[in-house]
Every structure is written in structure tokens, then in C-alpha cells.
Target: Bifunctional protein FolD
Amino acid sequence: MTSTHRAALIDGKSIAVKMRAEIAQEAGALAAEGWQPRLVSISVGDTAAAELYVRNQQRSAESAGVQFEARNYDASISMEQLVGVLQGLNADPRVNGIIIQRPLPDHIPVKALQKAVHPLKDVEGMHPASIGNIVYNDLALGPCTAVAAVEILKTLPLTLEGLDVTVIGHSEIVGKPIAFLLMGLGATVTVCHHMTRSVAMHSRASDAVFVAVGKPGLVTGDMLKPGAALIDIGINRVDTPDGPRTVGDADFQSCAEVAGWITPVPGGVGPVTVAILMQNAVLATRLQKEHYAAQYANTEV
Ligand SMILES: NC(=O)C1=CN([C@@H]2O[C@H](COP(=O)(O)OP(=O)(O)OC[C@H]3O[C@@H](n4cnc5c(N)ncnc54)[C@H](OP(=O)(O)O)[C@@H]3O)[C@@H](O)[C@H]2O)C=CC1
Ligand SMILES: Nc1nc(=O)c2c([nH]1)NC[C@@H]1CN(c3ccc(C(=O)N[C@@H](CCC(=O)O)C(=O)O)cc3)C=[N+]21
Model:
């Protein structure tokens, strides 16, 4: 690509606004049937990483017609106490979604805690049942960031069947679910991690690259096939001469000169992640309504 080439910017904010309008409609219909969607966020200790996310969730919930309650517990809370809190929320039919903000203090095993959330209220899509559904290509409540990143790819004029895609990062909450979702759409997926000998060898051969690592500047333009789509999931706080800034994992300047489409950070995957969380909260409410209806259908009135 000549240096005058500039990748088309993928506007996550406008994608999120469009999604929220549909979500608000479904939330309104459920509320009219006596099922007002309600989401409870659990954070433990002072989590700067999650604070921004929780604030955006609160704002997004208001415009999506989802009730939102943010609970923050002291870092000293024990695993048993937290599981007790979750059991109360699982049993409360007025609560439809539960999200456990990360990171958690070291003494709390996040995977065990995630399993304590009822699968029907697992709006984070991190319960083994939810992850299993992705493997079975039977997506119901999927991990918000992974679903958001793939939804963004689906807005591009690309045929997903047979598309060559590289996913950089293989975490359970982002990289791995993205890979399974893409396989379910017929893409040919390569997953890279810190042991991969040459990430560039794979990313240069790909029509689309997802990066979810947490290292600013990790992906540079010379690592991309000209015209490829770059979906940047990274969120990094960096100091710049003009003060601290949030940047992604891509070196935006050099990537924008090669890529065909690129997501900015902020303004790319982030807002769509929050919209998917609201979509999951409404879907979870719908699933619970149907579950209770089925359960009480055969009870004598
Ligand atoms: N926009 C959004 O909505 C969200 C954004 N994020 C952001 O996405 C990023 C990743 O988050 P998360 O998945 O939770 O992070 P993790 O730290 O859990 O995973 C990072 C992954 O990157 C891999 N990795 C590390 N170094 C390299 C390297 N040099 N080359 C290739 N792979 C490497 C690691 O591999 P290995 O395991 O082998 O070390 C690991 O698989 C973070 O910046 C986070 O803030 C996270 C959630 C939501
Ligand atoms: N269980 C759990 N799941 C997560 O997915 C999770 C988490 N915990 N903890 C924190 C990280 C980080 N994360 C963000 C998502 C969206 C924005 C977001 O909305 N960013 C906007 C706004 C940024 C701003 O306001 O500056 C943007 O990128 O445009 C930010 C951060 C989700 N995370």
C-alpha cells in the first residue's frame, strides 16, 4: 500500500448505538410482560481496570432499558462469602444477569467463581456451559468481548467461509472464544500466543487479524497483508508527552497505512463489548422467562 493509503475506520460507537436501539425494544417488550431485565455487577477490591468498564455499563444499561446495580465488595471478602452472594442472586428471579468484573484479588479463584453463576444468568458467557455451547456452535450467552469482536468482523464486506484469520492471544475470556466463534463461521483460524515463533508469519498471510494481548505497539503495519481487517481488542494506558492515553495493541499509524479496515482504541471494540453485555442481559431474561413458563406450565393452577 502507498503511504497515502488509509484504512477505513470501523466505528464501534455507531455499531453499539444501532445495537442498543434493538436491545431497548426487546427490553421494553419483556418489561411489559413483567420481566424488566436487571443486571448485577460484582467487583471486589479497587479495580481500576474494571471501573471504566462498569461506568460504561451503567450508561449503556440506562439507554438499553436494562436495570443495572453495581456492587463492590471489600478485597477481604472470602470465596465462601462471594459464592453465598452469587447463590442469593441466582435464586432471585428479579435478577437476570450477573457479571463478575475482572481482575479479582489473588485469593479468589476466578474460574471457580464463574462456575457459581447460574448458566442462565451468565451474561459474561464464561460458565463452562456457555463456553461449551460455543464449541457446539450453539451460541446463546457468549463472552462479550469475543462476540463483539466477531460481530464487528461480520459488518465488513468479507466472505467469512474460508477467510484466513489470525487471532493473537489465546485467553479464555477473549482469544479462545474468538477462535471458536470464527471456526463456527467457517473461517480458517490460526491462534498465536507468547510461544508462537513468528506471529508475523501468520498475521501477514491473513485476511483478518484479531489482537487481544495487552501490549501496546505489538502489531505493526509490516505484520499485515495489505487490505486486511485489523480488530484491536487491547486496552493499554500509556504515558505520552500530552499525558496518559488509552491505546490498543496495534501501532495505529503504521497499521492504518496497510490495513483495509481498522478498529480504533478507544471507539472500536470497547463500546460494542458493552452493547453485547446488554444484549446478553436481555437474552438471559428472555431465556429465564421461557424456562419459568415451561417449569410452571404443567403445575396445577
Ligand atoms: N475491549 C474489551 O472489551 C476488552 C479488552 N480487553 C483487553 O484485551 C487484552 C487482552 O485481554 P485478556 O485476553 O484478558 O489478556 P490475558 O493477559 O488473559 O491474555 C493475553 C494473551 O496474550 C498472549 N501473549 C502475551 N504476549 C504475547 C506476544 N508477545 N505475542 C502473542 N501473544 C502474546 C498470552 O499468551 P500466553 O498465555 O501464552 O502468555 C495470552 O494468551 C488486554 O489489553 C485487555 O485489557 C480485555 C477484555 C475486554
Ligand atoms: N469480567 C470482565 N469482562 C470484561 O470484558 C472486562 C472485565 N471483566 N474487566 C475490564 C475489562 C476491560 N473491558 C472494557 C470494555 C469496554 C470498555 C469501553 O467501553 N471502552 C470504550 C470507552 C473508553 C473510555 O471511556 O475512555 C472505548 O474503547 O471506546 C473498556 C474496557 C472489559 N473488561
